[in-house]
């Protein structure tokens, strides 16, 4: 039987805000019983982490979702010891205002103590070629934290479908692998990157940037577009494309390259393939 719920249509309604796991269990109990007024509706959870992009949420709410739950939780277990956990943007009041305008049904906003109480000792680790490259190589333990918190959120909310942004494509592949391996009954969907009119990806960390830094950061999307155009012209050699990207990025004086890699990614895939190029 599909999960079911009465859907809020009036965008003036404030979404229900849950901060406790038990509150989610009790609040969503109607979704898991057979006594609801409206049936055959599906429950969705969206993982924006902290920064809520209105275009992204409007896309979800207007085209695909029956009952939408937004998870807003800055997860400490995916941050390294010298990373920006404390400084990471947190704008819960502004986020809730956006969600109310869009008619989102519920928000799960737990504390760190709620998710990781004293004595917590269980973690999920996806050990494969997926996690030993890119961010997995540069941020040891990052995907262990991601897999753990997402598994917990799936268990708490029990959604039919979960949405993750394409901006973190490796993360999506890791989560798909985890869902497959653990036989979790949830469908994972990757949502296209949302960019500003200038081409800058809308993300939490990009909020840090000054006007000048945002202008400089455009070199990244410009370099990807350049590589995409080269592929359209028939250039598929990965090393050649990587050098094209590198050379273009280095025309920006403030740019510092961490790594440049190219992998093909099927939207249904649980693998990253470096045998040929597909930049998007």
Structure description:
Helices cover 35% and strands 10% of the residues. It has helices at residues 21-27, 54-63, 92-102, 112-115, 135-138, 142-157, 169-181, 211-232, 238-249, and strands spanning 16-18, 43-49, 67-72, 106-108, 161-165, 187-191. Helix 6 crosses helix 7 (169-181) and helix 8 (211-232) packs antiparallel against helix 9 (238-249). A 6-stranded parallel beta sheet has the order 1-4-3-2-5-6, with helices on one face. The radius of gyration is 20 Å and the shape is globular. With 280 residues, the chain is an alpha/beta fold.
Structural class: alpha/beta
Cα distance, first to last residue?
A: 37 Å
- Residue fraction in strands: 5-15%
Number of discrete helical segments = 9
Biggest beta sheet summary = 6 strands, parallel
**Helical residue percent?**
25-40%
> Order of SSEs, N→C?
EHEHEHEHHHEHEHH
Widest sheet, order of strands: 1-4-3-2-5-6
Shape, please? globular
Radius of gyration: 20 Å
């Amino acid at each position: 039987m599909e999960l079911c719920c009465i859907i809020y249509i009036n965008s003036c309604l404030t979404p229900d805000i849950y901060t406790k796991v038990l509150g989610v269990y009790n609040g969503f109990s109607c979704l898991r019983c057979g006594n609801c007024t409206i049936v055959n509706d599906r429950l969705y959870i969206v993982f924006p982490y902290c920064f809520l992009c209105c275009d992204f949420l409007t896309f979800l709410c207007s085209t695909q979702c029956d009952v939408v739950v937004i998870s807003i939780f800055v997860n400490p277990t995916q941050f390294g010891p010298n990373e920006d956990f404390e400084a990471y943007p947190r704008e819960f009041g502004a986020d809730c205002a956006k969600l109310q305008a869009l008619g989102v049904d519920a928000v799960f906003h737990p504390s760190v103590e709620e998710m990781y109480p004293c004595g917590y000792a269980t973690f999920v680790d996806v050990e494969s070629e997926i996690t030993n490259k890119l961010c997995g190589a540069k941020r040891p333990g990052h995907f262990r934290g991601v897999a753990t918190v997402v598994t917990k959120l799936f268990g708490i909310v029990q959604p039919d479908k979960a949405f993750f942004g394409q901006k973190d494509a490796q993360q999506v592949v890791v989560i798909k692998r985890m869902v497959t391996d653990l036989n979790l009954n949830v469908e994972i969907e990757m949502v296209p990157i949302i960019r500003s009119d200038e081409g800058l990806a809308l993300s939490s960390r990009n909020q840090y940037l000054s006007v000048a830094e945002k202008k400089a950061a455009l070199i990244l999307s410009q370099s990807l577009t350049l590589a995409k155009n080269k592929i359209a012209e028939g250039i598929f050699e990965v090393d050649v494309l990587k050098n094209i990207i590198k050379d273009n990025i280095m025309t920006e004086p403030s740019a510092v390259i961490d790594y440049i890699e190219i992998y093909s990614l099927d939207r249904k895939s649980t693998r990253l393939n470096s045998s040929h190029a597909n930049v998007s």
